Amino acid sequence: MLRRLQRARLLPRSVRVLRSLRVLPRSVRARSALAAAFAAAVLFTSGALLMRHQLYDERLRATSSVAQQQVTTLLSATANSSISGPWGAPYEIVAGDGMLLASSPELEPYEKDGHAFLTGPGRGGSLPLYTRRRFTFPAVAEPAARSLSGQTLTTVEGTVPASYLPGETQGRGVAAGARVRVYVLIVPDDAERAVGELDRELVVAVPLATALVAGVAWLATRRALRPVEAIRARTASVTAADPRERVEVPDTADEVAELALTINATLQRLEEAATAQRRFVADAAHELRSPLATLLAGLEVATAYPDRADWPAVVSAAGRQARRLSGLTEELLLLARLDAGAPPAPAERVDVAALAGRLSEEYAERAGGSPKVDLLVAAPDAATTVFAAPGDLERILRNLLDNALRHAVGRVLLTVARDSAAPGSVLCTVRDDGAGVAEADSERIFERFTRLDESRTRTDGGTGLGLAIARDLAARHGGLLVLAVQPKGSGACFVLRLPAGDPMSIRPRPFKGRGRSARSQRL
Predict the structure, then answer these.
(1) What is the mean pLDDT of the chain?
(2) 8 A C-beta contact, residue 109 and residue 145
(3) Dihedral through CA 92, CA 94, CA 97, CA 98, nearest 10?
(4) How many helices and strands, by DSSP H and E, does the chain display?
(5) CB atoms within 10 A of CB 73
(6) 3-state SS class at 420
(7) Is the peptide bond before 207 cis (omega within 30 degrees of 0)?
(8) C-alpha distances in angstroms, 106 versus 137, 143, 185?
């Protein structure tokens, strides 16, 4: 719930509002189509605006070119005769200080008493040609001025001496030396008509194109998600009790294929976990049944024949079986805690050499000299201190020593030294002179409830959990426990490497083996 709230806070307010109102669709196909439609609408609208802007500018440039040509035409036409009335674009011919010589009907509402609306050229000065100027026309009600009313327009103008236009100035009272200016207005009517026609087409084309893109996106997403739906349906049929189903991997070599491969790998791990769990339960039941059956049989026989029973022996046998049950139960609980990821015990500095010395004395006394238990500290002056939970480290060494005592013939050797192959690590080895372990079984012996065939026939055989617990505890402290490859018949040698520093900051380095197991090393 907290993660959902945190993710919600990162979303824009508009998106959160839409989600709260359930406006945004939940379907991936619909969301993809909506996103594609939105992107297409933005793209098409931007393109339409750019298109109409370019069309408007193009038509306006064409109108400006026509106006410039009209200035030339008017100057030529008035050279020999006067003109009046419409003449293409709106125009006005002004002399001197504003004397109106001629104009189109559109400008008549702005002209009063023979005075032109546009600025007169005056007397003397330069004679500009095709220059441009902007004028603002006041709003008027006359229909003739409808195209000019309230607009600011650009004019193209040409200025010449009055003597150049005798047809227009003769007899009009134009002073000698005056100048005459021809104005032609650039009216954007043609550009606006073209843009209007384009708008009528775009208002239909843009929504249709957007809808087409949305439809294509919806269909493409639907087709792309079809394998995902098949994967979902197949995965939904998988149960934890029977995870043998696998999803079909499409031959597209894309993300969907990667998803199918990942799901199949997950299902494979689930199947392996379920198989391991069933095997674990069966093995645990078998291991618990044996001491229980022995205990129950002894008690039933003693109860049936109380006068013949050797009660001290019965109680002693029951105690042994009860202790065996207690140890097995304790190991099962420890494995359950390790599998559940329970927090480790507090770590502290532990002198491995001192701990090994205490345990070697204890096990030597327990063995009674057969087999003989020896301790060898390869470098007494070197620091053999590690950062670990003392109880966990002691359990690792005890499990290794218990295993060695069960298989040794005459000697068990425990060594402690600094690891020259991995500086900053402490190396412990536990050797026995028993039959040894085949190279093919060098990893299998670390599996739970795994006991080699020859050990199962021994009356003092273990539960098959000690080595598995030892390896899990070693890995929990950043260490590594392996079985070193030994020559046939030279016994077994277990190698424990522990980091001398904080295991959270030290990454364990695997042994480089030459046997079948990647974790084994020949010593």
Answers:
(1) 80
(2) yes
(3) -40
(4) 11, 12
(5) 16
(6) coil
(7) no
(8) 11, 9, 10
Mean of pLDDT values over 234-262: 78
- Residues 138 and 180: beta-carbon distance below 8 Å: no
Task: Report the amino acid identity of residue 401.
Answer: L
Alpha-carbon span 278 to 462, nearest angstrom: 21
Tokens of 421: 């192959």
Tokens of residue 291, six digits: 């001491």
CATH numbers and ranges of domains, the chain: 79-187 (no CATH), 255-339 (1.10.287.130), 348-499 (3.30.565.10)
| Distance of alpha carbon 313 from alpha carbon 298, whole angstroms | 10
Q: Is the pLDDT of residue 29 over 50?
A: yes
Q: What is the model's pLDDT at position 156? A: 93
Best CA proximity match to 428, nearest among 398, 397, 404: 397
**Average confidence (pLDDT) over 233-237:** 80
φ/ψ of residue 211, rounded to 5:
-65, -35
The alpha carbon of 247 is separated from its chain's Cα centroid by a whole number of angstroms, namely 24
Joined together, the tokens standing for residue 79 give 């050279």
Angle at 358 between CA 357 and CA 360, to 5 degrees: 65
**Residue 115 β-bridge partners:** 99, 112
283 near 448, Cβ under 8 Å? yes
* Mean pLDDT confidence for 338-343: 76
Number of Cβ atoms within 10 Å of the Cβ of 415: 18
- According to DSSP, the residues that pair with 183 across neighbouring strands are 92, 157
CA 40 to chain centre: 26
Q: What band does 260 get if pLDDT is binned at 50, 70 and 90?
A: confident
At 184, is the secondary structure helix, strand, or coil? strand
- Termini Cα distance of the chain: 54
Q: Which two tokens stand for residue 502?
A: 């904080």
* Closest C-alpha among 113, 73, 76, 119 to residue 95: 119
